[in-house]
Amino acid sequence: MSETIYRKYRPLIFGDVTDQAHIKTTLQNQLKQGTVAHAYLFAGPRGVGKTTLARILAKAVNCEKLKEGEPCGKCAGCLAVSEGKTMDVFEIDAASHTGVDNVRENIIDGVRFAPVQLKKKVYIIDEVHMLTMSAFNALLKTLEEPPEHALFILATTELHKVPETILSRCQRFDFHRLNVVDIVERLKMIAKGESVKIEDEVLDAIARLSEGCLRDAESLFGQILAIGGDKKITMEEASLVIPRTNISLVLDYLEALSRHQAAEAITVVSKAASDGTRIGPLEDEILEALRYSLLASLGSAPLSSYDKEATLRLVKIAETSGVSQLQQLIQRLLEYRVVFRNDRIPQLPLELLAAEGNISASAAPVSVAPIPTPVVVPKKDSEPEALSPAPQAPSEKPRANASAATVPLDTIKSKWSECCNALMEVSGTLPVILQGVQLLEMDGATLRIGTKIGFIADKLNEPKNRGIIADILSKLVGENVAIMAEVVHQEQDELIADLIGEFGGTVS
Fold first, then answer.
1. Are residues 24 and 170 in the same domain?
2. Are residues 39 and 153 in the same domain?
3. Which of 23, 92, 183, 316 has the most CB atoms within 10 Å of its CB?
């Protein structure tokens, strides 16, 4: 294929444009009634049809045989615009023509002259928000008093950067992202045009990965067609270009969470990681499924590309979990992804998510010679420290006061891995959440543990959990040790950098 898919199948009339019905209908009515404005502003995400509709509008206002608001596509005006063989339609990339001199040269100096070939001169200015303020000011005068023969169509992906003075002189249309169903239907039409058979699973995966951007979907579709030849394209072949969908893993994981079966959920994640599954895309699919279940539980499930079986399972997850738990799962996973974005254990956010709902239930007394562990209770104002026994089984020899001895922090650190391994025998979740903590210092006989997540500090500070950890650690170092967890706040700059990085940006 010498021509890219999205260029080859670019819509030529309003009726061919996928979705954006609210915009197409308004423009067609204006064309039929002869009430076309002198300036339009098309705002919305990239790849959803802004430039395509601008070109169709340019064709329609110059069509000699307009019918029901649609350009005929056959007259001299339509052909001149479609083939780019006219000097009366100008497409300007504001990203590379930002200055006032460019605006004067490309627009202001020429707009006052009548069209050479067509009925109207049309100026399509893409990424108009990139213009400098001086350039906007120069353009403003022309937008205020444009010649009768001129039509301006401004397009932007960043509406907030366009001055209010410009916005007030344009008819504004807001484009939205396309839903999965519409993208799949569009891809099926293209596949038919290319005489290629392709599995529905492949189309669904493309639609989800494109995140509502039709141009991205068509570009990805073109790459897949290039590897498929003339035969039917399967998911196995398409996985050379796109990651295989993880929906079965997603459903197994979420079903385990809905039943509060942390160990089962962690097993799903561990197996996925050992099989080479990319954790980032898996987390994306889990968030997408959680969102679907949340909306389903609210009675507002969106259109999706999930098959019947997956949809039924997601609805069941919604019924079992409820709105509150689904909200919490989404919030926690987003938080964990930011905090542990650079962690050497990529599956840690999913493991922590599983641990959160089950840690208290899964914690159990130590099986080897348990000894009551004195636990330091946090001070209240000026009250002295109080010691309360952890809920352990009775011991032959109670330990001495935990504040009476001090163990070097280096000794604790040298035994920490061994402590976590021993915890695995009595708890499926405590070892998981301890992977992301910091060993801060020994305060007397109390080990201060730092974490960036408040809920982890709360769970570790529960008397039962503190007792379990302290008991094992005390046996390993040969001294009585108490445990105290606290939240270690990130510096503001570091937190902002983490959040920006999570969404693919950089700090300059």
1. yes
2. yes
3. 183
